[in-house]
Amino acid sequence: MVRDDQKRKRVLVLGGGFGGIYTAMALEKSLRRDEAVEIVLINRENYMVFQPMLAEIISGSIEILHTIAPIRRLCPTVTLHVREVESIDLENKVVSTSPGFRPHAHTIEYDYLILALGNVLNFSIMPGLEEHALPFKNLGDAIFLRNHIIHALEEADIEEDQDLRRRLLTFVVAGGGFSGVEVAAELNDFVHRVVRHYRHISPDELKVILLHAGPRILPELPEDLGIYAQNILRRRGVDIRLNTRLTAATADEAVLDVEERVPTKTLVSTVPGAPHPLVAALPCQKERGRIVVNGFLEVVGYPDVWALGDCAFIIDQKTGEPCPPTAQYAVREGRCIAHNILAAMRGMPKKPFSFAVLGLLGALGHRSAVAQILGMKFSGVFAWLLWRAIYLMKLPGLDRKVRVAADWLLDILLPPDIVQLRTSRTQSLAREHFEPGEIVFRQGDLGDRLYIIEKGEVEVVKEEEGGVEKVVAKLGPGQCFGEMALVSDAPRMATVRPLTGLNVLTIQRGAFRTLFDHLPSMRETFEEVIERRQAG
Amino acid sequence: MVRDDQKRKRVLVLGGGFGGIYTAMALEKSLRRDEAVEIVLINRENYMVFQPMLAEIISGSIEILHTIAPIRRLCPTVTLHVREVESIDLENKVVSTSPGFRPHAHTIEYDYLILALGNVLNFSIMPGLEEHALPFKNLGDAIFLRNHIIHALEEADIEEDQDLRRRLLTFVVAGGGFSGVEVAAELNDFVHRVVRHYRHISPDELKVILLHAGPRILPELPEDLGIYAQNILRRRGVDIRLNTRLTAATADEAVLDVEERVPTKTLVSTVPGAPHPLVAALPCQKERGRIVVNGFLEVVGYPDVWALGDCAFIIDQKTGEPCPPTAQYAVREGRCIAHNILAAMRGMPKKPFSFAVLGLLGALGHRSAVAQILGMKFSGVFAWLLWRAIYLMKLPGLDRKVRVAADWLLDILLPPDIVQLRTSRTQSLAREHFEPGEIVFRQGDLGDRLYIIEKGEVEVVKEEEGGVEKVVAKLGPGQCFGEMALVSDAPRMATVRPLTGLNVLTIQRGAFRTLFDHLPSMRETFEEVIERRQAG
């Protein structure tokens, strides 16, 4: 991008979370008309997610789009690029973004850079998590989870296999911090509120399990509030498992470190975040993966670069303590950076960052919450009203405030919604993980995908007359199975079981057919494989 | 599925549109407690779409989920299967559905069958439609279109290429019936209302074009109302092209029969429906693809099978005229079938179907509409108020009525929403269509996908120093191109242009890499191809 005016300074903000947006808003507000400054913000979506209300999407007490606010309305004079950041070049002061409709690289030069990229969920820490656990971080995750829950209820209502029913009606949430507790509470409320519409499901069949590695949930809060929350949730039927960790996940089970496997089709993980890959790639100094800044929030060694929020390692200048990665801090950090950038431009003194937390709030669903505000502790209905009042106040934009208030009002008056909005199409290529003792597929099943082994081993077993089993093959990495059912319409001719932990790549029937029909090399390979199998 | 009670009769309804739902609702209401009848309904979603309000999702004046109603709430005693119907066996009185979580075929026996499957959009009638036109029939289509429009505005706001800007800011709707007119009107209103948030787009750049094959739009209405609607839309800036048909579509253009190509990234098609594939496969008598029924709406030749709505060919028993495929008729047909099934069970006389249409309503966006009710004609604000009042009344369920009324109220008070909810992930395998004169990709572009030719021919051209072009290859069906940029990170090394109409299958970079890494046969093939290309 060519700079149209050489004298105009460009401030480039990367990231549209609390940190990035509040920096841009504060800058926009403080700029004088005679200051030739352009603010550019890059974010992958054209909205900011109001995280504290995200869990309410599960139960539908807030409309899907009301927990998010359009960035163009929050910062009307900012130039917004709805793109992914692809690389950051601190030496040449250039950032490049993903292509839009045209497949062209797009680069943006800057005078001042603000890094507010947040962090990402870390799903690589245990087998099967990436393939089978549901994340809970952004709007798409919340919508997906809600629909998945409704889908599970729909299926359970007409399912006669008791084992599968149990899996469908068991919901597991891993992580007992604020996020995990709010998800478990909302999920539990929602399934119990709507179950009466599913005539073949009894409320006793519903099971919500919250896994937490520590001795009590909500470690961020004082002990008595944590215990209070625990008691409330247990009374509502949530099965809280303390001192328990998830160790692996499959399509059918959550595997725990206490030698237990919980059969479930719904596993939500709120595992701790990992550094954003772009931050990891930066050459600057880092502490536990976060960018080290000085007291003015400037990145050490790069005078025109600033960092804040979850991606920065910030020391409070009064207490000397590291600042927690919360929205409360990100908002204040943003204002501090806006002040300091303007000070740098105007040649005025900069301000060191310091902030004392005002309070902590956690919603427990169904009209109760826990809160610690200015040292005082609250719980129950009063804390819940406080929660709603405070977050409604903090929600950016008047139109959003009105819309959410209307949602809450209607939610009290009207029954909850159970329409399932399918947002994801089946991926034609996917990865799956299996644990030993599970079954990949059974003889007689319909064949809907082909499997290619990435890691691990399987045995192929034929059931013969009289229930006798015969192992017909063992397969390992690079080999594939399940192709027979894809080229003919016959059901699976054998059962396949993993002998070890197993990672597979799967290709859906439709995609397989397309590739088979159009790629001669692929057709030849599989025709050979099939011939060999049939001969063997 | 085993029948638990042999004496219990099962009524099976296929389809959850107006026809299916109103039949089930009427049956549920009229059944006596002592009648052992089970009603089962199969639909691919757990909600019914209220079609007349679908277009309002585009502008966001109704919340996404409020135009749909949960089937479980409309018919609480009906057993709902959220599945696809896979086959209908009229001889053995069995229907089979798609598998759910378990890959097992699922069959349901019936005593009485009601076919309310509707019709499907017919996108196979011209080249490129299936690949590049946006349908407008169900909820997913409406959400997709809304997000696509916002995406186009986001991109246009930061795009400097004038040609691409024009394509992004031109929106084409094909079909001047009720559906097409409502979409064009809402779309036009929406882009003009939100454009002020896009500071680099001038309202003059926005172009909405409505194509219609006949001499005036809304042929369903009397001439003066059609002309009135035409004038209103033209005054608001909609470019209405009469006597004009779409003949082909590509990713960049709408090709018209008047030897014109309209550059656009947004083409909505509301083409006439084709018979549902399941209906097409039935052995019963059909007229223009629709199932022929007798005066009682029984399928001719199959005494316990009934059909209604868009999939049935119904003659009004008073006028002798065929009934139009509208919601108004479907609702009355449903009530008639419910009456007749109960009459059959109870041994009472059946009722022949007859209904006189009450009126026709078409919304034109921005507080105007046209209507013909009980022979009287209305237009303007009054017709618009009438439209809202009548449809609010007709919306099934009290909670929906309240929610939609609240939406309309807030829509008057608050600015329209511009958040973009991305619901579709990029398909790893897709089809694309190109017309001669277009360009598949340009030398120097980033390589994001591989192309395999299904039909047609291309030329591969290298630009050399001094702007000289050299044709280096011609490729035809079964051959592939674009693989070089996928195995290395280099940009496209040549330009590819279609020599004829071209259909290609594309594989996205990520999917290609996965296949390349895990399928040895694929790797070998492409390594060979690349070696040959580099040598050549």
Describe the 3D structure:
The structure is a homodimer of 536-residue chains. The model of chain A is unreliable at 1-5 (pLDDT under 50). Chain A has three domains: 9-44 and 83-119 and 274-346, FAD/NAD(P)-binding domain, CATH 3.50.50.60; 129-269 and 366-413, FAD/NAD(P)-binding domain; 429-535, Jelly Rolls (Sandwich), CATH 2.60.120. In chain A, a hairpin with a 4-residue loop joins strand 6 (85-89) and strand 7. In chain A, helix 5 packs antiparallel against helix 6 (162-168) and helix 14 packs across helix 15. Chain A contains 15 helices and 33 strands. Chain A has a five-stranded parallel β-sheet, with helices on one face. In chain A, strands 11-18-12-13-14 form a five-stranded parallel β-sheet. Chain A is of the alpha/beta class and 536 residues long. Chains A and B meet through strand 4, strand 5, helix 5, helix 12 and helix 14 of A and strand 4, strand 5, helix 5, helix 12 and helix 14 of B.
Share of residues in helices of chain A:
25-40%
- Give the integer mean of the pLDDT values of chain A: 89
Number of domains of chain A: 3
Count every beta strand of chain A, where a strand is a DSSP E run of 2 or more residues: 33
CATH top level class name of the largest domain in chain A: Alpha Beta
CATH architecture name of the largest domain in chain A: 3-Layer(bba) Sandwich
Beta-strand residue fraction of chain A: 25-35%
Low-confidence stretches of chain A: 1-5
Estimated structural class of chain A: alpha/beta
Major β-sheet profile of chain A = 5 strands, parallel
What Rg of chain A is obtained from the alpha carbons, in whole angstroms? 26 Å
Q: How many H/I helical runs of chain A?
A: 15
* Overall 3D form of chain A: globular
Quaternary state reads: homodimer
Query: What is the topology, as strand order, of the major beta sheet of chain A?
Result: 5-2-1-9-22
* Most extensive chain interface and residues per partner: A-B, 83 and 83 residues
**Kindly, what is the distance between the CA atoms of the first and last residues of chain A, rounded to a whole number of angstroms?**
62 Å
Write the CATH fold name of the largest domain in chain A: FAD/NAD(P)-binding domain
